[in-house]
Amino acid sequence: MVNLHDIRYLRIGTPDLESAVEFATKIVGLELAGRDGRAAYFRSDKAAVRGDTRDHTLVYFEGDPSDHVVGFDLKEREDFDRAGAEIEKAGHPVRYGTKIECEQRRVQQLLAFKDPSGNKIELVVRPHHSGERYFPSRDAGITHFSHIGLKTSNAPRDEAFWTKLLNARVSDWIGEAPLLRVNTIHHTLALFPSPHPGVQHINHQVEDFDDVMRSYYFLKEKGVRIVFGPGRHPSSSACFLYFEGPDKMVYEYSVGVKHILPEEEASYRPRQFPFAPESFCMWGSRPDIPEFRADLKDKKPPLKTVA
Ligand SMILES: [Fe+2]
Predict the structure, then answer these.
(1) 202 CA → ligand 1 middle, Å
(2) Measured in angstroms, how far is the CA atom of residue 204 from the centroid of ligand 1?
(3) What is the pTM of this model?
(4) What residues form DSSP beta bridges with 173?
(5) 261 CA to centre of ligand 1 in angstroms
(6) Which of 2, 35, 151, 295 could be stapled to 83 by a disulfide with Cβ–Cβ 3.0 to 4.6 Å?
(7) For position 302, what pLDDT does the model report?
(8) How far is the CA of 46 from the centre of ligand 1 (A)?
(9) How far is the CA of 78 from the centre of ligand 1 (A)?
C-alpha cells in the first residue's frame, strides 16, 4: 500500500499563458510566485491556517489545455522506491522524473504514472516549502489549495485503484462518484464520470462564508461565468461557489469542509447520496457543470415528499 500524505500541485497546459496568469492572479486571487521559461507558478497557502506554505500549488505552462498533472507527496519519504515498485507491479508503468523535471517541480525525487482512466499522477518526496508569506493578488480570502475533481471513465475501477493501491478512503459517494480522503479532510480527490480524463475542478478554501459571497458579487461584476452556487454540499458540508476559468477549467471556492479525525476513522461509514442536484447542493442551487448534472445522466430521480 502506498500512503499518500497530501496533494501538492497541479500543472495545467494552456495555449494562452498570459491570459491564464491574468485570471489566476486578478480573478482567482493567487500569488504569482515566479516564472520559469514558459511556465508560471502560483502560491496559495496561508501558514496560519494550513500549518505550512507549499512552494507552489498551481502551475500553468504553455501547452495543450487537456494536459493536466497532479502531484501528491508521500507520508514517508523512505517509501518512494517501494511505492514505485508496487504501482508498477499493479500494472501501471512508472517513470522516474529527470533532474530537470524535479527542479521544475521543486522536489527532490518524483515518479510518474497514469491512473486507469489515463490521468497523469506524480508522487514526490521532499517538495519545497516556502519561508515567505503568501501574498494574495486580490482579497479573495484564499487560505489554501485543497482538492481537485478528477474525471474517470469507470468510477468503480478507479475507486479501487485509489483505495486499494494508494490508500485513499471513500468519505461518501454521489451516484458512482467517490469523494476520497487521504488525510483528515473529507475529500482531497473526487472522481466524476466523464468521457475524457483530466482535472474536473480545482478547489481553493477561503476563510469564511463572507468570502464566498464577496467573490460571488465580484465575479459577476467581472463577467466571469458562475457555474454553480453559492450553495452547500450535504456531503462535506462545505459552502461553495464554482466558476469558469481559462480553457473552461472549473474553479471552486469553499469553506467549512468536514474533517474525519483519526479517532473517527474506525467508526466512520461512507454515505451513498443519489446522483441528483440535491446531493450536490442542499440549498437548491443547480449545477451547470456537465459532470454534476443529473439531467445529463440516465438516472432515476430520488423520491420526493408527496404533499
Ligand atoms: Fe469541490
Answers:
(1) 7
(2) 9
(3) 0.95
(4) 178, 272
(5) 20
(6) 2
(7) 63
(8) 19
(9) 31
**If you measure from the C-alpha of residue 300 to the centroid of ligand 1, how many angstroms do you get, rounded to a whole number?**
24
What separation in angstroms does the CA of 116 have from each of 188, 216, 275? 18, 36, 23
pLDDT reported for residue 301: 62
pLDDT profile of the chain (307 residues), mean per 10: 96 98 98 95 94 95 98 94 96 97 97 98 96 94 98 98 96 97 97 96 98 98 98 97 98 97 96 96 96 75 68
CA 173 to ligand 1 center in whole angstroms: 13
Centroid of ligand 1 to alpha carbon of 128 (angstroms): 25
Q: How far is the CA of 89 from the centre of ligand 1 (A)?
A: 32
